[in-house]
From TrEMBL:
It comes from Niastella vici. The lineage of its organism: Bacteria, Pseudomonadati, Bacteroidota, Chitinophagia, Chitinophagales. This is Methyltransferase FkbM domain-containing protein. It comes from the Bacteria. Residues 65-219 form the Methyltransferase FkbM domain. InterPro entries: FkbM_mtfrase, SAM-dependent_MTase, SAM-dependent_MTases_sf.
Amino acid sequence: MISIRKIIARFYDPLVNIHVGNVIIKSPLSHPLFHAMRGFKQFGFNTTRLAETIGQKYKDFNIIDIGANIGDTVAFFRNSVQAEVLCIEGDDFYFKILEENSKTLKGVSLFKGIVGSSSGTGNVQIKRERGTGYIEPSATPVKQMSLDDILQANPAFANAKLFKIDTDGYDSLIIKGAANYLQRAKPVVFFEYDPFLLEKNDQQYNAIFDLFRANGYRYALIYMSYGDFIAGIDIADEALLQHMLHYFAGRRGAFYGDLCVIHESDKDIFTALCDKEIAHFKKYRNYNWSPVK
């Protein structure tokens, strides 16, 4: 059944207040954030626990958020940490709302632009649909920048310890364009994994795992897109990794996952976060469970 909120938004789409945990941000009435949080109570809060866990090891860490949209992920971060965040968004409509929300979220630096695997021009455009923006082919060339080049203009974030990406199918290209940053800063990388969308832009999207391993990344936490924790794995086990990724293949975007990839030097973060996720969902679902001996 179509909600009254959705019907109204077809004709009138004002900015409304949305509570993201203890944080309030402005959102278009039509934005799916409200429905996602109402339908999936765990939606987004894995990023809150992630930021908290990183902050327990790195007291003064920074964050890069590509595909920042209206600032909703920053709002989830703000439930646990006050780290400085570089928000990158290419869509004019969402960027204006992001500017407004950044005034209350505090500690937010803004960069407007499209991030790609390299800097230059490309025939792409941002298509806005259902509260998000994704990149599609266009007849008009537009400027793109790699993250490595963006960080030259924003050196305060050159060693940001948390790297979040949500660009509806452009994530693997952005990761490939951030090789120098990954090698230098060894950030925790949190990104959307949707094979249906990724393949449209990058036939070799799974090559990012070779890039990760070549730069010392060893661990991954796997989530459903609505926040449920599935497993923490060692990505050196290629067979296990392929089995886990295969779960999301062939879904045609009906559902997908989020991956959190962690460098071998931060094994303590991986272990602590896995323990935290299991404890969280054990309490949330109210079940008795103990590890298999």
